[in-house]
Structures are given as C-alpha cells and as structure tokens.
Specification:
Strand content: over 45%
Number of domains: 1
CATH superfamily: TolB, C-terminal domain
Shape: globular
CATH topology: Neuraminidase
Strand order of the largest sheet: 3-4-5-6
Helix content: under 10%
CATH architecture: 6 Propeller
Number of strands: 23
Radius of gyration: 17 Å
Length: 293
Amino acid sequence: MARSFQHAGQRARLHVIDVKSGESRVVFESSEVLFEAPNWTADGWLVVNGDGRLFRIPAAGGAELEEIPLGDIPELNNDHVLAPNDTSVFVSAQDGHIYEAALDGSEQRRVTEVERPLYKHYLHGVTPDGQTLVFTGITRVAQENGEMIITLIPAAGGEEVQLTPDDHADDGPEFTRDGARILFNSERGSSEAGHAQLFSMNTDGSDIRQLTTDERVNWFPHQSPDGSEIAYVSFPSGTLGHPADVDDVQIRVLAADGSIRELARLFGGQGTMNVPSWSPDGTEIAYVDYPLS
C-alpha cells in the first residue's frame, strides 16, 4: 500500500540544496500527497512517487505535481530509476515486479519474469549503458531473518544473478558512474543490527570494501555525476532499517579522500533520498523532509 501521513499537520516538502554552499530551497510542498524519492531528468524535471503513482515537477518550482501516466502498471512503491536515455523510467511495483514505462505514457512493459510467491524486487540502479538493473531481492522469510540479497537482471528481462546470497542485510545498491562497481549499504560490518554502513563491490560481487565506519546508520549511497563524492542518508546510531519520521536524519556527503560533511539535517528518513538524486551537473541534490508543523 502507498505510504500516508501518520501525524496531524504533517506535510511533505521537496527541497533542492546546493552542494557547495548548503543553501536549500523548497520546490514544492503538500499536506495531501506524501511524495517520496526524488530523482532528476536531464532537462530539469524532478520525478517523485506518491499515492502509488509517479509525478514530475520542474526543479525550478512554481508548478504543481504532474502525473506521469503508467497505464496498467500496479501501484508503486518508492523505488524508481530513470533510464540513461532519459525517455523512460524503471519502477518497482507493489506486486513485487519491476516495470519500465515511457515518460510520455506511450508504453509500459514488465521486466521481471519469474513468479515467486511473496518475493519482492526493490529496484535501485541501472548501468550507464542502460543494459543492467540492480535491485534488492526480498522474500517474507528472508526479511524476517534479515537476509536481503543484491541481485542483477538484464534491463530487457532475463536471468537474475544474486551477488550477495549470505546472511547479511544488504540494500540500496546503485552502480558507480563508470559502471565498474556497485555501491550499497549493509549490516555486514557488525554482528548486531542497527549498524548499517556504506560498502562497494565489483559487479560480480567480489572485492567488497567498507566505505564508512562511524557511529551513525548510513543508507542509500548515490555517487555524484563526476564520481568524486557520494551523498547518502544518515540515521541516528542504533536505528533499525530505514524508518520514516525520524528526528536528526542527515544528508551527508562522502569525499574521495574519506572525509565526511553534513549537508542537511531534517525530520524524515524513509522517502527522503532513496533513489539517485543528484542534478545532472552535480551542483545540487534533491531530497524530501516531512515536518510536523
């Protein structure tokens, strides 16, 4: 089911923040539609999901949300990734499958083929050439046991290849800009849940490297267009999963030299920055917060 507001007076605010100056502006806000997960088209539109649907709005603001027609695709969750050709979008639906839809509404197709009861595909990334998708595969049993497996599938459909078939909870996989590695967050750096950190690995699952080692809980790494920085969502220490409506959530940026800086602090979490959200020129990041007043 689509997520809805849990508190009286709560609203969703879509922000764009300058990565260098830290100056932020509100593009759009709503107390009616709980929208999530902004990403950015090459021609200056932000794409978000809400109420199980997909919308776009100019990054410059001054407009209302405009629905993107998805035909017969079932209700969405909040994982959607723009294709490199910028004419279509890959989406995860509540029926557990991944679909591709033209942004002009002209056509849609299902990517995933295998029917498995209770299995969910949570999409997060596509290769720069648009040929391969990476997602987190979860079953109900796996979710209860903390097993979340990073998996590849051809964008055209076909065989799924599991990269992390182990007992660790892995999520948020996204290809680096050169397509050579996959960024992700994982609990594999600790024996206790609530210590997720950022990692990277080769596209065959080898050479896993830990990128952050701090006291906070770090999720959803997104590499800048020039490959020099990684933006991510950081939760307070001990946070389990990536819940909504958390105080002291931070947007942080990891530089190539390992230094980390806080870019924004907010009330939010789930939906704030689940998908690639850098502007095409790498100067800004889009994110959502959910203030209570």
